[in-house]
Amino acid sequence: MAQLNDDVKKVLQNAEMWVLATADQSGVPNAVPINFVKVLSDSQIMLVNNAMKKTIVNIKNNPNVAVTVWHEHEGYQIKGKAIIQTDGANFEDGVALVKKEKPFLDPQGVVIVNISEIYITTPGPDNGKQL
After folding, report:
1. Which of 3, 20, 57, 67 makes a 20 to 30 Å CA pair with 77?
2. What pTM did the predictor assign?
3. Contact by Cβ (8 Å): 113, 78
4. Could you tell me what percentage of the chain is helix, strand and coil, using 3-state DSSP and rounding each to the nearest 5?
């Protein structure tokens, strides 16, 4: 299991948007921008579901996901298994995160990614290197 280091956390916390990629049962990819996110621990990240209809169906059928994030000239790809939560402390945190900035949105759940791999996507000699 991969762990988030300080460099990755800095990019995650400063990025304006993350991209969540899933695939359906046939392997057809789907990628969506995610605005409301949180680092839960060194091995978990949370993404808030505001309008992820196809993404949620994909995760229920295939929990393997990839999250790409970048800030300025530094980027990472995080892979792992996702679980969907529609109640509990993480869900409540996700709702509060959204309502603070956009009270008119109605979050339907959160996606928790248990991180298994992290790759560098920053251009340069380390591009593609696994952390």
Report:
1. 57
2. 0.93
3. yes
4. 25, 45, 35
